[in-house]
Design goal:
- The structure holds two protein chains of two kinds.
- In chain A, a hairpin with a 2-residue loop joins β1 and β2.
- Chain A is of the alpha/beta class.
- Chain A has two domains: about 250 residues, 3-Layer(aba) Sandwich (Aldehyde Dehydrogenase, Chain A, domain 1), CATH 3.40.605; about 180 residues, Aldehyde Dehydrogenase, Chain A, domain 2.
- In chain A, strands 13-14-15-12-11-16-17 form a seven-stranded mixed sheet, sandwiched between helices. A six-stranded mixed sheet of chain A has the order 8-7-6-9-10-18, sandwiched between helices. A two-stranded antiparallel sheet of chain A has the order 1-2.
- The termini of chain A are far apart.
- By secondary structure, chain B is α/β, with parallel strands linked by helices.
- Chain B has one domain: 3-Layer(aba) Sandwich (Aldehyde Dehydrogenase, Chain A, domain 1), CATH 3.40.605.10.
- Chain B has ten helices and ten strands.
- The chains are: A alpha/beta, B alpha/beta.
- β17 of chain A pairs parallel with β10 of chain B, so a sheet runs across the interface.
């Protein structure tokens, strides 16, 4: 089989497929020049501001507030008031209905949100339209239904809310991560102070308008914007009872240290260096699509990205050949173009980090492949990249790059695949490709990772718990398990609080 | 003439063996000379626990339940000795009953803690609990036997391997327990018991990169320091209670794995 599929004469030159540009209209989005913080149901003027841009064009989009510790305190106080003032005691079925409303409004306004997400974050419109938005709405819909059923999820444990949740989310799935955080927190009866990422605040700010439409009581959700200093102020705020963070392992550790001894509940969803493992009996074309989706989805800005490809040695050549051919057909460019597969890198800072690690990979002796590809002059771009000849000890095989960069390693036996896959301080996710069902489960049992995808990759669902082992964090988001971090429960010593 | 009794040398319990402390140190507790473990003993104990983990975690849940039940049998057989080393007969009996209770959970908790998840797509999606790995337990001082067993039993039920730092002031019940464990069916290294200065040993365990979780039930005043050190490798910090008995105690030492298995013709 392998011989038949190997192309004669190596990798063919990429064909010039000329698509007509198909840009999504931008005029569905109306932006203000300047945004403050959303506190107690109202906009408060921000003392300090910074400019948020479109990473695809470097064009300034709006002035954004950089929340000071005093502004964060105001938001926490508003959340506390709303909590004491009825949200924690309102009938659970009423709480559910607010969340159902939010889900419905997000569905209705999904085009507007999708365009704004791509504009501010650089991700392809087909992804924000087909993945981020439907999942964000689904998340609210899912947790809405839990709000008045908590005692069935946690029998004999008297589930009750914790208080004010401080939530800090990353820039890779801005609205979706907001949904992952806010929906279970509100369903459980908490109030929220949330900070979107510094580079991608706009969909979170537009979400405040959804809250207004849903007539959510003032102060139940408060949004403050800013950089890491604002995040630190949320973590340190005395009135915050529970902290939820999604982001880098480095910052996660700092937060865990900061909260030591406070008794506050904490959940961390941190970095990853997932292995995507391809066995020789896998459906290769399907697997190659899975590899591409695993690492080039959202420019590789995915904590569970399949950034280490483990290929069984006997199929190494056909897999690499097919992958390189497929790479040449990926369209890199305007995030708002419906044909775009790979959009802009989220920020200059992230681009520099990717460039640095890729340079290290070359220095360490790995072989680099990048398809011929023209990227726009303005903006932040990185061509989809594959490294072969990678040793496990190379930094590109150990460190999270968080960009469209794949490192390929090989293995001979299932045991060796398991050993290599687990050889990382992370443990967020893994992929297994094989036609053998018993082998899927054998592998799944041994991979030290919170999510294992078999014959697929990067699938998410509100009913499916997501979260890491080891240094990828603790606590789960999604499913019944995703409620637990937001509840006080009798007889529970769950870690993190 | 009266017979001179043969006195016991109180040692550590690491990897199923009873070594003296590598440091050669002892300290006095409950009128006895007790081994005072060192940083190197901590290292050895963690290594023994890591080595024992695959077999213990890989055992069938039914089998693990029987091994746990055998611990209860061994403690019952030494009930009189244990009674002298803790608050008395009542504490021993509650300890035995607690072990039996957890033994019965071994092949049940996964059904309570796990789930199958109705995802929108052609996948069978399920979530199963798995042991987090090596657990460091700081046993509470009181009650000396029941407190230690209450913290260790749920971690073991879940398939974890444990390194316990016994009560500093009341270590004899822990040492007696080690002797009961050594004659039970628990594989060597699954439970390792250290005696010594807790404030000296605990920070090494909290910062150890091959320890997955730390139960700070007996941490007293040093809890914040330990929690800070635990962040070095994102350890799970369990603030255990000396008297707890619940399936959620088992859950505290478990990771959750979600699998997306394809469905197709």
């Amino acid at each position: 089989m392998t011989d038949l599929e190997r192309p004669r004469g190596g990798v063919p030159a990429p064909k010039d497929w000329t698509y007509a540009p198909a840009p999504e209209a931008r005029d569905v989005v109306t932006l203000a020049d300047r945004y403050g913080h959303f506190v107690g149901g109202e906009w408060i003027e921000a003392e300090e501001t910074y400019t948020t841009i479109s990473p695809a064009t470097e064009e300034p989009l709006a002035e954004i507030g950089q929340a000071t510790p005093a502004e964060v305190e105001r938001a926490v106080a508003a959340a506390r008031d709303a909590y004491d003032d009825g949200w924690s005691t309102i009938s659970p079925s009423e709480r559910a209905k607010y969340l159902f409303r939010i889900a419905r409004i997000l569905q209705e306004r999904s085009r507007e949100f999708a365009v704004l997400e791509s504009l501010n974050g650089g991700k392809p419109i087909k992804e924000s339209r087909d993945v981020d938005l439907p999942l964000a709405a689904a998340h609210f819909f899912y947790y809405a239904g839990w709000a008045d059923k908590l005692e069935y999820a946690f029998p004999n444990q008297r589930p009750r809310p914790i208080g004010v949740a401080g939530q800090i989310i990353p820039w890779n799935f801005p609205l979706l991560m907001l949904a992952w955080k806010i929906a279970p927190a509100l369903a459980a009866g908490n109030t929220v102070v949330l900070k979107p990422a510094e580079t991608t605040p706009l969909t979170a700010l537009l979400f405040c308008d959804v809250l207004r439409q849903a007539e959510l009581p003032a102060g139940v959700v408060n949004i403050v914007t800013g950089d890491g200093a604002t995040g630190a102020a949320i973590v340190k705020a005395e009135g915050v009872d529970k902290v939820a963070f999604t982001g880098s392992t480095e910052v996660g550790k700092a937060i865990q240290r900061e909260l030591a001894g406070t008794g506050k509940k904490l959940t961390l969803e941190l970095g990853g260096k997932a292995a995507n493992i391809i066995f020789d009996d896998a459906a290769l074309d399907q697997a190659v699509e899975g590899i591409v989706n695993g690492i080039y989805f959202n420019q590789g800005h995915v904590c569970c990205a399949g950034s280490r490809l483990l290929v069984q040695e006997s199929i190494y050549e056909p897999v690499v050949d097919k992958l390189k051919r497929r790479l040449a057909t990926l369209r890199v460019g305007d995030p708002l173009d419906k044909n775009t597969d790979v959009g802009a890198i989220n920020s200059k800072q992230q681009l520099e980090k990717i460039q640095e690690l890729v340079a290290v990979g070359e220095e360490e002796g790995a072989e680099i492949y990048q398809p011929p590809c023209r990227v726009p002059e303005k903006g932040y771009w990185f061509v989809p990249t594959v490294f072969t000849n990678v040793a496990q000890s190379y930094r590109i095989a150990q460190e999270e790059i968080f960009g469209p960069v794949l490192s390929i390693l090989t293995f001979r036996t299932p045991d060796e695949a398991v050993e290599k896959a687990n050889n990382t301080p992370y443990g967020l996710s893994a992929g297994v490709w094989t036609e053998k069902g018993s082998r899927i489960l054998w592998m799944a049992e041994r991979l030290r990772a919170g999510v294992v995808w078999a014959n697929t990759y990067n699938r998410f669902d509100p009913s499916s718990p997501f979260g890491g082992y080891k240094e990828s964090g603790f606590g789960r988001e999604g499913g019944r398990h995703g409620l637990e971090p937001y509840l006080q429960l009798d007889d529970s010593e769950a870690f993190g609080g | 003439m009266s017979r001179l009794p043969v006195k016991k040398t109180y040692k550590l319990f690491i990897g199923g063996a009873f070594p003296r402390s590598e440091s050669g140190r002892t300290y006095e507790a409950e009128g006895q000379n007790v081994a005072r473990a060192s940083r190197k003993d901590v290292r050895d104990a963690v290594r023994a626990a890591r080595g024992a983990l695959p077999k213990w975690a890989g055992m069938t849940a039914y089998n693990r339940g029987q091994v746990l039940y055998r611990i209860a049998e061994m403690v019952e057989a030494r009930a009189a000795e244990f009674a002298d080393l803790c608050s008395g007969r009542d504490e021993v009996e509650r300890t035995i009953d607690r072990v039996v209770w957890y033994a019965g959970w071994a092949d049940k908790f996964a059904q309570v803690i796990g789930s199958s998840n109705p995802v929108a797509g052609p996948y069978f999606n399920f979530t199963v609990p798995e042991p987090t790995g090596v657990v460091a337990t700081l046993a509470p001082d009181e009650p000396p036997l029941l407190g230690l067993v209450s913290r260790v039993a749920p971690a073991l039920t879940g398939g974890n391997a444990v390194v316990v730092v016994a009560s500093e002031t009341r270590p004899l019940a822990a040492i007696e327990l080690a002797e009961a464990l050594a004659t039970s069916d628990v594989p060597g290294g699954v439970v390792n018991i250290l005696t010594g200065n807790r404030a000296e040993l605990a920070p090494w365990l909290a910062a150890h990169m091959d320890v997955n979780a730390i139960d700070i039930a007996g941490a007293d005043g040093i809890a914040p320091e330990l929690e800070r050190a635990a962040a070095d490798n994102v350890k799970r910090v369990v603030r255990g209670r000396a008297d707890a008995q619940s399936p959620w105690e088992i859950a505290a030492f478990m990771e959750l794995k979600t699998v997306w298995h394809p469905v197709g013709r």
